[in-house]
Amino acid sequence: MLILVAGIALSTIPLLSAQVGEKFGYHEVRTDSQGRIVPWDGSGPSEAYDHDLRLIWNFWITMRNCQNGVPYYLQHQVWKAETDDPRGLGGNQIDMALS
After folding, report:
1. pLDDT, tens digit, 9 for 90 and up, residues 57-89
2. What pLDDT does 45 receive?
3. Quick check: 22 pLDDT over 60?
């Protein structure tokens, strides 16, 4: 059974390669010398991961406050740049996020 699973997994690898000029979302797909997809930001996975973490942290630490001075994410479950979303947080949503 394990050999069958490994054989199926190995047979799908060529499906994960990309063609030159192909796009994924807003980015052109970058590949290595073997045609495998690599991160489009930086020169390797560690730089791409670091870039993503910085973007995510910047999003949270620069989040605007509500009119009462409390950070928006502590009172709303949906963030919209242009307007306040009327949906508030459920009683356990912050606890669930922290866990």
Report:
1. 998 899 888 889 988 888 888 877 777 778 888
2. 85
3. yes
Distance from C-alpha of 18 to C-alpha of 44, rounded to nearest angstrom: 17
Q: Are 79 and 85 in contact (CB under 8 A)?
A: yes
Q: How confident is the model at residue 10 (pLDDT cuts 50, 70, 90)?
A: very low
Q: Which among 76, 71, 48, 46 is positioned nearest to 60, based on CA atoms? A: 71
SS in 3 state form for 22-61?
A: CEECCEECEECCCCCEECCCCCCHHHHHHHHHHHHHHHHH
The domain segmentation of the chain, as residue ranges, is: 19-62, 63-99
The tokens for 25 are 């979302």
Distance CA 42, CA 82 (A): 31
Cβ(95)–Cβ(89) below 8 Å = no
Phi-psi region of 35 (alpha: psi -120 to 50; beta: other; left: phi over 0): left
